[in-house]
Design brief:
It is a single chain. This protein has two domains: 254 residues, EAL domain (TIM Barrel, Alpha-Beta Barrel); 94 residues, no CATH class. The protein contains 15 helices and ten strands. An eight-stranded mixed barrel has the order 1-2-4-5-6-7-8-9, surrounded by six helices. A hairpin with a 2-residue loop joins strand 2 and strand 3. The protein binds ligand C2E and calcium ion (2 copies). The site of one calcium ion (CA) has 4 residues, from loops. This is EAL domain-containing protein. One of its GO terms (molecular function) is cyclic-guanylate-specific phosphodiesterase activity. It comes from Paraburkholderia pallida.
């Protein structure tokens, strides 16, 4: 719709032609928006945007909480707060409304969401559950000091220790931060809150930022850990190496979007610090969380009791993860001059010490037995003599993969095990 300040504003022939041209162009733009990949579906009418912006300001905001699992302890000590908007019967998800909000709406969303989360945290605390909060900080927050002020004010209001709050920062397109953004990030650090880099690997300049920015946590995007049949081994390798990279930079690493128990077990083997995903829990309203935590603690006690036999039925994915760690360890040691020869010698003698096992043994990748010993010798010799690119190594690895698949037949892990991954 076009409005004119004067009667008959658009009736001249040139004006009509201009307006028609404008209409065509806008039509093209809308079509392009609707078909462009990565952009959210349809264009949203202004009235709907205004309605959503109003919802944010009128108590329709409901934070839901998704548990983050600490893989070292097996416990949930932190939850991510995720925004939902109650619109009559419907509960709007962030994917539907976020992109349509203007910058002041986002600030409002952050401030109100944080207040709600810290209020909920206080309730959980009263019920005996001490949970830290992780909340999403839109990229604009690094250009707008009001976010920092909102965070400081909320922490004070709820007397929440700042280390109990993590802010999740999305990757942005900017390669590096400017002076002002650095200064705001510095203020957050000085406040004592933790910072997490969200969605690592989802695009943009993740690795450069990793080195440059003062994050405490890295959250690996679910696409990175996404598994489909024949890329499973490589997906695990990537997760493993990103985790090592994070650790060597002094950061903790969490994998997002974990949707199978097998993957969860594999991540723990790879040394990932935390996990989040539907297999642990879906986001839920604040009131449901205490019951979930209580169930989780009960389950943990139960599992601890069953632990000894657990490895026998370990999934393909878990075994692949053990293999990834083993392969890396052997190559690291073999890189030292002369070490390869010593390793081979060590493998020849039956040495049942934990160290010897760690150096030359496949550990629990396969059940103990003669077949394992033989395969282990072949693998080690191929890897140490031929190296990672050799045919001998590939052949030995294929045999191992088949053996893994055969031993894990009773589990429901992803089917085909890769024969050639490079
Ligand atoms: P995110 O920060 O990466 O949050 C995780 C999203 O992944 C959540 O979607 C969660 O429900 C979903 N998820 C968790 N586990 C799994 C899984 O196993 N499989 C799959 N397929 N998905 C899983 P949600 O709640 O729809 O949020 C989407 C995004 O919206 C968030 O992605 C975040 O970027 C943004 N967002 C959510 N709440 C807020 C907020 O309060 N403020 C701002 N600025 N952004 C928010
Ligand atoms: Ca997030
Ligand atoms: Ca994320």
């Amino acid at each position: 719709m076009l409005y004119s300040a004067w009667p008959g504003g658009f009736v001249g022939p040139d004006q009509v032609a201009f307006v028609e041209l404008l209409q065509t162009l806008l039509g093209c733009a809308v079509t392009r928006l609707q078909t462009q990949e990565g952009l959210h579906g349809a264009a949203v009418p202004v009235s709907v945007r205004q309605h959503w912006a109003a919802l944010v300001r009128t108590g329709a905001l409901q934070m839901h909480y998704q548990p983050l699992l600490n893989l070292a302890t097996g416990r949930c000590g932190k939850v991510e707060a995720l925004a939902r908007l109650r619109d009559g019967e419907r509960l709007l998800m962030p994917d539907e409304f976020l992109f349509a909000l203007a910058s002041d709406d986002l600030l409002e969303l952050f401030a109100r969401g944080l207040h709600q989360a810290l209020a909920d945290r206080r309730q959980w605390l009263a019920a005996g559950h001490d949970l830290a909060i992780s909340i999403n900080l839109p990229p604009a927050a690094l250009n707008d000091i009001r976010y920092f002020e909102a965070a400081r004010e909320a922490l004070q209001t709820y007397a929440c220790p700042s280390a109990q709050l993590t802010l999740e920062v999305l990757e942005t397109e900017a390669f590096s931060l400017n002076e002002g953004q650095r200064s705001i990030l510095g203020k957050f650090r000085a406040l004592g809150v933790l910072l997490a880099q969200d969605d690592l690997g989802s695009g943009h300049s993740g690795l450069a930022r990793l080195r440059e920015l003062p994050f405490d946590w890295i959250k690996i995007d679910r696409e990175i850990a996404h598994l489909d049949g024949d890329t499973a081994l490589d997906a695990l390798r990537v997760v493993y190496q990103v985790t090592r990279l994070g650790h060597s930079l002094g950061k903790l690493v969490l994998a997002e979007g974990v949707d199978s128990a097998d993957l969860l077990a594999a991540l723990a083997i790879l040394g990932v610090d935390g996990a989040q995903g539907y297999v642990i829990a879906r986001p839920m309203p604040a009131a449901q969380l205490p019951a979930w935590i209580a169930r989780d603690e009960a389950r943990e006690v139960h599992e601890a009791r069953e632990a000894p036999g657990a490895r026998a039925g370990e999934s393909v994915l878990a075994r692949l993860a053990r293999f990834v760690v083993w392969e890396e360890r052997v190559l690291m040691i073999a890189a030292a001059p002369g070490a390869a020869r010593d390793l081979l010698k060590a493998a020849a003698v039956v040495a049942n010490t934990p160290l010897a096992d760690a150096l030359v043994g496949l550990g629990d990748v396969l059940p103990a037995g003669e077949a394992r010993e033989a395969l282990q010798r072949d693998l080690l010799r191929a890897l140490l003599e031929g190296g990672r690119e050799s045919d001998a190594w590939r052949a030995a690895r294929d045999r191992l993969m088949s053996a893994i698949a055969a031993t894990a037949h009773e589990t429901h892990a992803p089917e085909p095990v890769p024969s050639h991954t490079h």
